[in-house]
Amino acid sequence: MSPTNRRVMATARFREAETNDARVLWSTKHSAINAVETDEYTTAELAAWMPESGAISDFRRAIDSETFDVIVAEADGETVGYGVLNRLDERIDAVFVLPEHSRQGIATSPVQQLESRASMGGIAELTLVSSLDAREFYRGPNYRVVETETRAIDGTDLEFLIMSKSCDVCV
């Protein structure tokens, strides 16, 4: 690991999202999807997947809801990523990191925190929705592919993976 990566991991802090974080979380997701370089999705599929600015209200609702735990990752006072646990569906719905902070360990910690929350909340089997290109990232912490799911987003069908892990081995 390079010294730069160690510095980012050492300074990354995690906190509960607040309603006023909605715009920056939307921007983080938008930037992360915009930077995806993969043969798994076409340019049109990636464009459909990127949230429109109207989705900011969806972020606010999730942050204010009792159903979701939304965690914000910060480094040097800047939001660099986030993760979302859907308690009702017993699922990690999202983990996104700004492209300039990817592959520095920032996404691993919120996944572990969300797993811990799921386990403490009595969730026996945690699922998550993964993009096709993030499959290997989630295999590292022992998630297994359960099924491939097609979701229609803005009239475009996108394939995602539903992955699962027993909370007996979470964190």
TrEMBL record:
Gene3D superfamilies assigned:
3.40.630.30
Q: Which UniProt keywords apply?
A: Transferase
- PROSITE patterns registered for this protein in UniProt: GNAT
Recorded hits in InterPro entries, A to Z, give: Acyl_CoA_acyltransferase, GNAT_dom, N-acetyltrans/Recomb-assoc
The N-acetyltransferase domain is annotated at 33-168
Q: Which residues cross the membrane?
A: none
Q: Under the GO molecular function aspect, what terms does this record hold?
A: acyltransferase activity, transferring groups other than amino-acyl groups
Keyword Lipid biosynthesis belongs to the record: no
This protein is called Acetyltransferase (GNAT) domain-containing protein
Q: What is the lineage of its organism?
A: Archaea, Methanobacteriati, Methanobacteriota, Stenosarchaea group, Halobacteria
